[in-house]
Amino acid sequence: MTQFERIIILTGAGISAESGLDTFRDKGGIWEKYDLMKVATPEAFARDPEMVHEFYNLRRAAVKTVHPNAAHMALARLEREYPGEILLVTQNVDDLHEKAGSRNICHMHGELGKIRCRSCRQVMDWWDDLVTETVCPLCTKSGQLRPHIVWFGEVPFHLNKIAQFIENADLFISIGTSGQVYPASGFIQAATDAGAHTVELNREPSDGYSLFEETCYGPATEVVPQYVENLLKEAHA
Ligand code: OAD
Fold first, then answer.
1. Average pLDDT of the chain, as a whole number
2. Are 233 and 207 in contact (CB under 8 A)?
3. Does residue 147 come out as left (phi exceeding 0), alpha (psi in the -120 to 50 range) or beta?
4. Which candidate, 55, 18, 39, places its Cα nearest to that of 203?
5. What DSSP character marks residue 77?
6. How far apart (Å, rounded) are the C-alpha atoms in residues 23 and 62?
7. What is the set of active-site residues?
8. 8, 21, 36, 123: most buried, per Cβ within 10 A?
9. 215 C-alpha to ligand 1 centroid (Å)
10. Is 216's C-beta closer than 6 angstroms to any atom of ligand 1?
């Protein structure tokens, strides 16, 4: 019997940590090394585009060297084998869910492997370094390309689709996120209001852990495959 018909999964930097990518707010995390106001806001890009490009060039280069881990693989397996609807919402800008095989993904904070032109407004795949002078391959203007990333102060992508899915979800699983960034931090309340069962899988309790009905703590590569295994077993029992 299928216990849950519509599952929404939210992932954050913690799911990619064991692949070798830094998280943001852990000790030694990205926001300890960089001032987010200087690299991740529209104002920062207007003031010093080279510094912002350099920050994302480094992150793009790092993502190119890493591979999906057992947690990414387990979520891809869940999408393939679970007899219900699954929406994977990630705050991550890496492509490790795609590399693992997940297909139904909303990158709410954008994607490192994409850029967009502020002149012709086209979004394109891009894994090379970007500098201010880089010419848009589509409209040939220079100085107009930016990372296809949602900066602080900008509206995240896919919010309508996510809100509609949560309204009718019966399971919400939050994985590897500190739950400190709005609007993703509000999904737990929306899921609770929708009557969904709520689960936190994280290395340690997040600030909002008490809002979840079920919790399981440990490295994502251990707790996520285990949780997925149980879901699939129950669904096929
Ligand atoms: P954070 O760095 O805020 O939180 C990472 C979470 O992952 C923490 O709760 C850790 O305990 C947990 N964690 C670390 N290693 C783990 C592991 N091996 N297994 C399981 N959990 C682990 O990252 P996010 O919550 O993703 O936005 O941050 C949200 C947003 O803030 C990001 O998308 C980014 C950032 O500023 C933008 O840049 C717009």
1. 97
2. no
3. beta
4. 18
5. H
6. 13
7. 109
8. 8
9. 17
10. no
